[in-house]
């Protein structure tokens, strides 16, 4: 996850690293990380290099120069300002933001946009769900032309998430499975992956305490053996993104390499 190789931004575990985003490409290559998920906030949205033509050119150049693929984007901006909860005039503006982000992603080869339906972005009513789905279905042709898929992270129960994602065409929409979030909610990963595992196309690796915050891998309530074995049985072959706890001593690169080795061990052991 972008930012994990950079110092904390205003003490936040996750935020766009404005001061050193280019340096992350260099560090990633030095430590054999070949995959990055972009982080996008609502604040200064159109100043983010992803949303500017000069920035897009620089991103593409850095990807080529340092052999990095930016395959996905985590749209924290949508969680921070969800159009499906806004009134009509504000909703129109936020929907245009969504389209602008989709076009920007296409310009740099990002093929998955993760929409977090959690925290401020969580779906609280069927009306909100209908607003979201109606907009996305109307834009299917646009997403197809841009070559992007919309991927949902949700706090729904397994059955409810299966119901939700079944309303959308699997050709254009899928599920982002967040191991830590599910652990925090007390979900059973076997039940989750049995319910909608066929729609999972991106996975966030992290650990969280039950009802609590993100903690170092292996110290929380995530059952990594159950998760990776279940994903393997489902034949999952997509990306894994480290959305892990930050280093308490500032050695963010060192701890990320340790987490990468832990995750690789689980993936290799279970063939996930």
Could you describe the 3D structure shown?
By secondary structure, this protein is an alpha/beta fold. Helices cover 44% and strands 16% of the residues. The protein is built from eleven helices and nine strands. It is globular, with a radius of gyration of 18 Å. 39% of the residues are buried.
Tell me the strand percentage band.
15-25%
Shape: globular
Low-confidence stretches: none
Number of H- or I-type helical stretches: 11
What proportion of the residues is helical, as a percent range?
40-55%
Mean pLDDT: 97
Order of helices and strands: HEHEHHEHHEHEHHEEEHEH
Structural class: alpha/beta
Biggest pleated sheet:
7 strands, parallel
How many strand elements? 9
User: Going across the major beta sheet, what is the strand order?
Assistant: 1-2-3-4-5-6-9
Give the termini separation: 20 Å
Whole-angstrom Rg: 18 Å
Summarize the structure.
The chain is an alpha/beta fold and 272 residues long. It is globular, with a radius of gyration of 18 Å. Helix content is 44%, strand content 16%.
Fill in the keyword field for this structure:
272 residues; seven-stranded parallel beta sheet; two-stranded antiparallel ribbon; 9 strands; globular
List the helices and strands and how they pair.
Elements (H helix, E strand, L loop, with lengths): L20 H10 L4 E5 L13 H14 L2 E6 L1 H5 L7 H20 L4 E6 L8 H13 L1 H7 L2 E6 L3 H8 L7 E6 H6 L4 H8 L3 E6 L1 E2 L5 E2 L8 H11 L4 E4 L9 H19 L2
Parallel strand pairs: 1-2, 2-3, 3-4, 4-5, 5-6, 6-9
Antiparallel strand pairs: 7-8
Helix pairs in contact: 1-2, 7-9, 9-10
């Amino acid at each position: 996850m972008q930012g994990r190789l950079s110092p904390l931004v205003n003490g936040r575990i996750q935020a766009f690293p404005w001061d050193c985003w280019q340096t992350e490409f260099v560090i990633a290559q030095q430590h054999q990380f070949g995959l990055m998920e972009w982080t996008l906030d609502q604040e200064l949205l159109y100043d983010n290099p992803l949303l500017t033509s000069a920035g897009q050119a620089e991103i593409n150049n850095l990807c080529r120069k340092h052999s990095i693929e930016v395959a996905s984007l985590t749209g924290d901006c949508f969680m921070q300002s969800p159009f499906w909860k806004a009134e009509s005039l504000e909703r129109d503006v936020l929907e245009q933001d969504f389209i602008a982000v989709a076009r920007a992603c296409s310009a740099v080869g990002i093929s998955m946009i993760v929409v977090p339906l959690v925290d401020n972005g969580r779906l609280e009513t069927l009306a909100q769900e209908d607003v979201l789905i109606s907009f996305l279905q109307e834009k299917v042709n646009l997403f197809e032309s841009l070559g992007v898929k919309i991927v949902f992270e949700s706090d729904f129960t397994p059955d409810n998430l299966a119901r939700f994602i079944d309303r959308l065409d699997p050709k254009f929409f899928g599920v982002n499975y967040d191991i830590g979030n599910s652990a925090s909610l007390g979900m059973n990963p076997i039940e989750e992956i049995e319910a909608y595992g066929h729609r999972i196309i991106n996975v966030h690796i992290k650990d969280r305490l039950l009802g609590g915050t993100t903690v170092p891998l292996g110290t929380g309530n995530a059952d990594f053996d159950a998760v990776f074995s279940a994903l393997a049985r489902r034949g999952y072959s997509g990306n894994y993104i480290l959305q892990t706890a930050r280093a308490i001593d500032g050695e963010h690169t060192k701890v990320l390499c340790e987490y990468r080795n832990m995750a690789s061990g689980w993936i290799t052991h279970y063939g996930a």
